[in-house]
Amino acid sequence: MVDLSAPTWRIYRSKLADPAALEAFKTKLIQWLARFEQFSYLDSNGHGQDAYQTYDLLVGVGCLDAIQARAGEGAFGQLTQFKNQYPQEYLFGYLAYDLKNELEKLDSRHPDPMEWPDLCFFVPEHRISVQNQVLTIASATRAPEDLYQEIVQTKVHSPKAAEKIELQPRIQREDYLHTVAQIRQEIGRGNIYEMNFCQEFFHPACELDPFALFQRLRLKTQTPFAAFFRWQDHFALCASPERFLAKRGQKLISQPIKGTIRRGKTEEEDTALKTELFLSPKNRSENVMIVDLVRNDLARSCQPGTVNVEELFGIYSFSTVHQMISTVTGTLSAGVSAIEAIKKAFPMGSMTGAPKLRSMQLIEQLEQSRRGLYSGAIGYFAPNGDFDFNVVIRSLLYQQESGYLSLQVGGAIVFDSDPEEEYAECLLKAERLREVLRS
Known about the structure:
Layout: E1 10-15, H1 19-32, E2 38-43, E3 57-61, E4 65-69, H2 75-85, E5 91-95, H3 100-103, E6 119-123, E7 126-131, E8 134-139, H4 144-152, E9 168-169, H5 173-188, E10 194-203, H6 210-221, E11 225-231, E12 234-240, E13 243-248, E14 251-255, E15 257-262, H7 267-279, H8 281-299, E16 308-317, E17 321-331, H9 338-345, E18 353-354, H10 356-366, E19 377-381, E20 387-390, E21 395-399, E22 404-413, H11 419-438
Antiparallel strand pairs: 1-8, 2-3, 2-11, 3-7, 4-6, 5-6, 5-19, 7-8, 9-10, 10-18, 10-22, 11-12, 12-21, 13-14, 13-20, 14-17, 15-17, 16-17, 19-20, 21-22
C-alpha cells in the first residue's frame, strides 16, 4: 500500500548521450503511456531560448489521488484543499475555460459534446523528467529501474494506415465574416477594445490513435509548451506556443501572444515576413492591448511597482507561423497563494479580449461552440511552490468513447480587422493540425 499522506519516491537517473537519444526515448515513452488511463506529458521541445523553462520534459503517469470539479462547485477552493493535502508532491492537471463562471457572473449555454471536467488535478504514481540531458524517473509504487527498462524496450510499430480525417466547420465562412463585422461594431460603440473570436472545426464520431497522432503532431510542430494529457477517455493533444502563467520563486511570468504571420518559402521571404509582423501597426496594437491587460491582472497579485514588461513585440518562429510574443513579470505579494494568483489572471487575456468581462460576455453570445478545455491551461504545481501553465491553443481535443474530435482556432479582432484576413489567419493556425489528421 502507498501512504498517500507521504509517498516514498524511489529515484533512477541516467545521462542521455545526445539530443538524438532524447528523441528516441520520447518516441518510446509516448507509446508506453498507452498503458495508463491518466497521464500528463509536458514537452518544451528543446526551446532553450526561454529563460524561464525549467524542464526539457516533465511527465506525470498513473494516479495516486485526484480531484475533478465543475465550475460552480467551488472548484478553486477544492483545488486549494487538494494542494494543501499534498504540499510536497507534484500535481499535474488543467483548468478549463468555463471556470470563468466561478470567477464572474457568467455562464456557458452551448452544448458540451466533450464533457471534460472543468478542473482536474492528480498526484502521479510515476514521474519522469529530463533536465540538461539527465533523465530522472521517480516512482511511488515500482522500482524505477524496471520502469526505465519497460520504456526503452517498448516496441514502436508503424501505425496502420488510418482513414484520413476531414473536419467540418461549426460556423460557415459567411457567418464568421458577419460576426467579425458585429464585433467591430461593438468596438466602434466603445463597448470593447479587442475580442478574441474563436471557431470550431470538428468530427462528430471518428476513430483514431491518439498516441501515434500526438507523435506526428509533436514532430511537425516542435512547440515550447506542448502537452499530451489523458484523463480516462478524454485526450488533449496540444501544440501550444504560449505560456499562460508561471511562478519561479516569488516571480510571476506571463507571455501573451498576439500577432501571427505565415512562414516564408525562402530564407529571404521568411526574414521579410518577420519584419512585416514586427512593424505591423495592427499587430502591435493587438499585442500592447493584451500586455496592458496582463499587467493589470498581475498587479492584482504582485507587489506594487514590480510589474514589468521584460520584452515587448518579440518575434518567435514556429513550423508554420511567426508569432509576436511579449513577456510580463512581477513579484508576488506576501500572503498571495499560487492558486490565488492564477485565479486573478484566469482566463488569460490573450484568449478573451479587453476589457475582459465584457469580452467574455460577447464570446458566449457570438461564438457557436463551448470552449471547454480549449483556451484553458495545462500544467503543474511543484513541491517548491513553483508552477507553470500553458494556453490550450493549437490543440486537438478527443473524446474516445464518442469519437468526438474538436479543433478550435481564433484571433484577436480590433476595429481595424479585415474579416477576410481574420478568417485566413484562423485557417493558417489550424493548417498544421489538419495536415497531421490527413497524414
